[in-house]
Specification:
Blueprint lengths: L1 E7 L20 H14 L9 E8 L7 H14 L2 E11 L6 H10 L4 E7 L3 H6 L6 H14 L4 E7 L6 H13 L4 E6 L7 H7 L8 H17 L3 E4 L2 E3 L6 H7 L3 E5 L4 E3 L3 E5 L3 H9 L5 E5 L2 H13 L5 E2 H8 L1 H16 L3 E4 L2 E4 L7 H8 L3
Parallel strand pairs: 1-2, 1-9, 2-3, 3-4, 4-5, 5-6
Antiparallel strand pairs: 6-8, 7-8, 10-11, 11-12, 13-15, 14-15
Helix pairs in contact: 1-2, 1-10, 6-8, 11-14, 12-13
Bound molecules: iron/sulfur cluster (SF4).
């Protein structure tokens, strides 16, 4: 079982907080698509023949693609890889691209069966600060029209801890999201990455960062409201109705193999990890000249172990101690038992049926616990 991620590195506008690789020069779209097709051929053996259970078209902004371009990509994937009939095929979209005609064609004329919409907030002031192209009215229309078009697996992204956002506004955002009966929610804490426009505003004291206690309160509210609305928290930032968790992202967290196609995309096949150049022009040029367009790392046992801890502990499935002993040996098993002791004592981690999980207390210091559990 494996997955394919396709990175569409174009955006119509630069959001103020975003440090993903993308370009606003959409005129290079057609040339880049040709290179994506070539990369799909190059990577044909990377997954060693594993069946593809999930495809994720992300970005950037995949909804800059026409229906014909999407189908070109998806048919190339099916021609080169063994794709399961029941594959989860996710498409990321920005609300402002989701008009009724596009949505109907996406639903009726492609094999995409899951939509992930970058809503971020239903408050216009937040959307302006984040420099998003849509406003709250468009955000609501996009969700309604997506469900109306027939999609039965719809996820939205929200951001909390936005400067100026009150607790009441955050609660209102969550209630609005759940009032649409969406199937899945990813909610992220706003980070200020150096080099982004919002980071500049913070440094120039044009905005204030939300205090840590306030952010934690907003995160607590998120968990509480999502749970009351019937959503299961299956990862630190992800909530779904039963049966609607993201299989693609769960694949990353459970160590399944995947290939990443496109500039800046990562690939992983247990033995190696590789990442493509983060530059459209360089990517296109190197693919066309048959030159290496990625860097590669061979993964040793310790790196694989640390990745297992990092991804496993973030999920509701936790880390499996028997699996650790089997996959990584008795020495690593003993080390992790020792490292977990203070957290077990402090009720930050609990043990159930040979698995370690973050408790509802530990989840608030997840990053600290995870790095303390790493082997150096
Ligand atoms: S649309 Fe998404 S990828 Fe593009 S700039 Fe905004 S946040 Fe980044």
């Amino acid at each position: 079982m494996a997955g394919i991620y396709v990175h569409i590195p174009f955006c119509r506008k630069q959001c103020s907080y975003c440090d993903f690789y993308k370009s606003t020069l959409l005129e290079n779209k057609k040339t880049l698509l040709v290179s994506l097709m070539k990369e799909l051929d190059h990577k044909a053996n990377y997954l060693e023949g594993d069946r593809i259970e999930t495809i994720y078209i992300g970005g950037g902004t995949p909804s800059v693609l026409s229906i014909e371009e999407i189908n070109l990509l998806l048919s190339k994937i099916s021609a080169v890889y063994k794709v399961s009939d029941k594959a989860e095929i996710t498409f990321e979209a920005n609300p402002d691209d989701l008009n009724k005609t596009y949505l109907e064609r996406l639903y009726n004329n492609t094999v995409i069966n899951r939509l992930s919409i970058g809503i971020q907030s239903f408050i216009d002031r937040d959307l302006r600060l984040l420099n998003r192209r849509h406003d709250s009215t468009k955000a609501k229309h996009a969700i309604r029209d997506t469900l109306k078009a027939g999609f039965s697996d719809v996820s939205i992204d929200l951001i909390y801890s936005i400067p100026g956002m009150s607790m009441d506004e955050w609660i209102c955002n969550l209630n609005t999201a759940f009032s649409f009966n969406i199937h899945h929610l990813s909610a992220y804490f706003l980070t200020f990455e150096p080099g982004t426009c919002i980071y500049g505003k913070l440094k120039n004291k044009e905005i204030d960062q939300v205090k840590e206690e306030q952010s934690l309160e907003q995160y607590k509210k998120l968990i509480e409201i999502a749970e009351k609305a019937g959503y299961i928290q299956y990862e630190i930032s992800n909530f779904s109705l039963p049966g609607h968790l993201s299989k693609h992202n769960s694949g990353y967290w459970s160590g399944k193999k995947y290939i990443g196609i496109g500039p800046s995309a990562h690939s992983y096949n247990i033995k190696t990890r590789q990442w493509n150049v983060s530059d459209n022009a360089e990517y296109i040029m190197k693919i066309n000249q048959n030159r290496t367009y990625f860097e590669m790392e061979h993964l040793n046992l310790k790196t694989r172990f640390n990745e297992y801890i990092m991804t496993g502990l973030r999920t509701k499935w936790g880390i499996d101690l028997k699996e650790i002993e089997k996959k990584f040996g008795t020495e690593f098993y003993r080390l992790i038992i020792n490292k977990a002791l203070p957290f077990l004592k402090n009720n930050d981690i609990e043990e159930k049926e040979n698995h370690y999980f973050l408790t509802s207390k530990g989840i608030f210091i997840a990053d600290y616990i995870i790095s303390a559990m790493f082997l150096d």
